[in-house]
Amino acid sequence: MSYRDTSFGSSPSSVLSSLSFRSRPFAGVTYSPAPDLNEVYPGLYVGDAVAAKDKAFLRRMGINYVLNTAEGKRYTQVDTDHLYYRDCPGLHYKGFQLMDLPSTDISKYFHIAANFIDEGLSRGGRVLVHCFMGVSRSATCALAFLMIKRGMTLPEALALVRSRRDIHPNEGFVRQLQQLDRELRSSRLR
Q1: Rounded-to-integer distance, Cα 51 and Cα 16, Å
Q2: Catalytic residues
Q3: What pLDDT band is residue 33 in, cutting at 50, 70 and 90?
Q4: What domains appear along the chain, each with residue ranges and CATH number?
Q5: Mean predicted lDDT score pLDDT of the chain
Q6: How far apart (Å, rounded) are the C-alpha atoms in residues 190 and 188?
Q7: Quick count: other Cβ atoms within 10 Å of Cβ 170?
Q8: pLDDT tens-digit profile of 54-79?
Q9: pLDDT tens track for 132-181
Q10: First to last CA, the chain
Q11: Other beta carbons within 10 Å of 145
Q12: What whole-number distance in Å separates Cα of residue 122 and Cα of residue 115?
C-alpha cells in the first residue's frame, strides 16, 4: 500500500507542524489486511488473527473448527470467544489464553489441542488454529497435534509445517515440544 498526502509539504518542519495540529492525519485512509493462513496438513490450517476474525472468510473456506491459542484482550492476543462466533452455526470453538513468551507453559494444552483438532478432522471438518500472527503459539499446537495424533517426530512435523508456512515457535515452546517428542518416543518403545 502506498499513501501520499501532499498537504504535508516538503520540509520536515511543515510535516511536524501539520502532525501536531491534526488529530487524525490519516483520516480517510483505510487498511484492511488480508487473512493469512495456510493448509499445513489436510484439513488443518494455521493462520493469523485477521483470518480468525473474518467470519465470512471462514464460511467461504469451510472452516468449522477454530482453535484460538491467543484468546484475550491484551497485546498480541485475539479478542474472540464463543460469543464472537454465536452467529456462525455449526462452528466449534476453543480458546487458550496464552502469551507468546518462552516462559509460558503451552505444554499443558498439547493434548487438549490435539484432541480438538483430531475431532474436527475426523468429522470431516476444516480446522483453523490461530494466534495473533500464526507463527508461534498456533504453530506449536499444530506441531503437537501432528506428533500426538499422527505419530510424527518433532523434526518430521517441523519439516512438514515449514514446507507450507513460515513458522517460528519461540525457544521456550521449542523446548516444550522437544520434551513432548522425548516422551512420545519413549512411550512408543514400551
Answers
A1: 36
A2: 131
A3: confident
A4: 37-189 (3.90.190.10)
A5: 87
A6: 6
A7: 18
A8: 999 999 999 999 999 999 999 999 99
A9: 999 999 999 999 999 999 999 999 999 999 999 999 999 999 999 999 99
A10: 56
A11: 27
A12: 10
